Amino acid sequence: MAIYRNNDPSRGKYNPQSYIPANDKVEDKWRSDDYKQGENYQLNNNQMTIEMLVDFVQADLTFSGLMPKVLPDLEILRIVKEKAMQWFYKNYQWAVIKSYYRLDRAFINSDYYTNYGYLVLPEECENVVKIFNIDDPSLFRIGIQAPNLSINFGVTNQPYLTSFVTNVGELGVYRQILSAFSDELNKLSKLYNKFSYNIEAHRLHLLGEVRNDLMLEVYVRIGQDELFNSQLFKDYVVGLSRVRLGEALGRLNFNMPGNFQYNASDIISQGQDLIDKTVEEVKAQSPNSSFFIMAK
């Protein structure tokens, strides 16, 4: 089975000299003669590792080092991995891309499939849309294609249309309509394999007989460095971290160094407002409530 991977170790490598923690000192190049290239705090890189994301969140929570750091980095890592990533991969349409897996028919003879009756797909696979047979040496033959219903053949060719239209404009309109209708007939005539896919356990159950190699049309996760660089994702993590920080500060009443207190309820309110705003934007960018297509 072909495995889709977008995990190039050479991309998104964390470089501590180009991205500094929130509590470290930042020297602006117009204020210091000791400025070195790459020491400025970079807010928006093309690639962002999880270490960079943690520093980004800490900079927001501490106002770039103005306030003491209270929320541990480990807690932010937990928020990113256990909450934010899981929610975005399942709800944000641009967090997944369409891909294809090729499944050799020989898998039915494997010990694992014989014992359990299902396959476990890679963790990156969020959903399976369609499964169809590879039963012809040419993948260009899709659907019935007999008689040909493409634009240049059959009922949609120009000589046939010219018999009942009067001008070039009408010819173009009717030709486009019939061509689109023919394409839909091709899709409907193609038989797909029945299956059941559990998105939590990543288990694929094939409900029919397997006679040929299979092609799986799936949605897989984009790379983590690409997801971390999304502004919506960063806002979502910051919102969750603010709420968590407020919850931690609100459990005890104590003075911070400098004899001041945090306003825990205000921090929670700001974090929740940012979360709600991000969720609304994610839903607004989705064409509907469920962008995964259910196949027969």
Strand content: 5-15%
What is the total tally of β strands?
6
Q: Which radius of gyration do the C-alpha atoms yield? A: 27 Å
Helix proportion: 25-40%
Through-space gap between termini: 23 Å
Number of helices: 8
N-to-C order of helices and strands: HHEHEEHHEEEHHH
What is the averaged pLDDT score?
A: 75
Multimeric state? single chain
> In terms of structural class, how would the helical and strand content be classed?
alpha+beta
Strands of the widest sheet, in order across it, are 1-6-3
Main sheet overview? 3 strands, antiparallel
pLDDT < 50 runs, ≥5 residues: 1-44, 138-162, 289-296
Choose one word for the global shape: elongated
Task: Give structural notes.
The chain has eight helices and six strands, in the order H-H-E-H-E-E-H-H-E-E-E-H-H-H. With 296 residues, it is α+β, with helices and mostly antiparallel strands. It has a domain at 98-220. The strands form two sheets. A three-stranded antiparallel β-sheet has the order 1-6-3, with no helix packed on it. A hairpin with a 4-residue loop joins strand 4 (195-198) and strand 5. Helix 1 (50-61) packs across helix 2 (73-91).
Keywords:
alpha+beta, three-stranded antiparallel sheet, elongated, disordered N terminus, disordered C terminus
Summarize the structure.
The chain is an alpha+beta fold and 296 residues long. It contains 8 helices and 6 strands.
